[in-house]
Write a structure and sequence with these properties.
Strand content: under 5%
Order of helices and strands: HEHHEHHHHHHHHHH
Distance between the termini: 30 Å
Largest sheet: 2 strands, antiparallel
Number of helices: 13
Radius of gyration: 17 Å
Oligomer: single chain
Helix content: 55-70%
Structural class: mainly alpha
């Protein structure tokens, strides 16, 4: 058992789609002014998604059959770097996306070869992106895994495992913020560690009777409280 029983109702009540990010496209456009491919994808994303979108919007975008998977991946990267509060965005987003798509054809091929229907396929896709796509570590490509799995209606869909979620796990395991706050927690880059995380969450789902992404969101919020306690 990971999550305290006193928080079960809180987990079940979580709306994972709250808090849509506010997308400032101009600074993305400025980074790719000489990259026609990325610029066209950004324009398409803005046309279909608008200047603000949340998880449920992105899942619907992933379900579209007339949008390329690489475009969906780019939209996910935008979502992962933007924020409901524009002043809190991760401004490294355009630079990191530029590195990911230094070779557009290679990046597109890697993204199209992602398969996540089984744990074995998740491991292969995890290792492929972690090894071959520059500046796209597990904190971000597991976001793509999540939206892809949700859009395909997988029962055991993959989950986001970024540094904030990892911090939430450590906070609960330590049971005291005083101890964990002395560490700078990072999500592991090991594929088997990711599977272990999924196993832990699936076990919590069976115990609590909730959705897996509600557990993930809860862990994210736990670390948010941990970080705020440092201020």
């Amino acid at each position: 058992m990971l999550i305290p029983k006193s928080d079960y109702d809180k987990v079940r009540d979580i709306n994972v789609s709250k808090g849509a990010v506010s997308c400032q496209y101009d600074y993305w456009y400025n980074r790719f002014i000489n990259d026609e491919y990325i610029t066209n994808q950004l324009k398409l994303i803005r046309k279909r998604m608008g200047d603000s979108f949340g998880r449920s919007d992105l899942i619907k975008f992933y379900q579209l059959t007339d949008v390329d998977l690489a475009t969906k991946f780019i939209a996910c990267m935008i979502w992962g770097h933007e924020s409901p509060n524009p002043r809190k965005r991760d401004a490294r987003g355009p630079w990191k996306l530029e590195r990911m798509f230094e070779n557009n054809l290679e990046a597109i091929s890697l993204i199209h070869n992602i398969v996540i229907s089984t744990d074995e396929e998740i491991v292969r896709s995890y290792k492929s992106l972690n090894r071959s796509l520059p500046q796209c570590g597990p904190s971000f490509f597991t976001k793509h895994f999540y939206f892809l799995g949700k859009s395909e209606g997988l029962d055991n869909y993959p989950l986001i495992f970024d540094d904030r979620v990892a911090g939430g796990v450590c906070k609960i395991l330590s049971r005291t913020s005083r101890n964990i706050n002395i560490f700078d927690v990072r999500s592991s880059k090991n594929a088997n560690a990711y599977l272990r995380y999924l196993e832990i969450v699936r076990n919590e789902v069976d115990i609590i009777g909730c959705e897996a992404d509600q557990v993930e969101y809860y862990l994210f919020e736990v670390d948010k409280v941990r970080q705020q306690s440092d201020l």
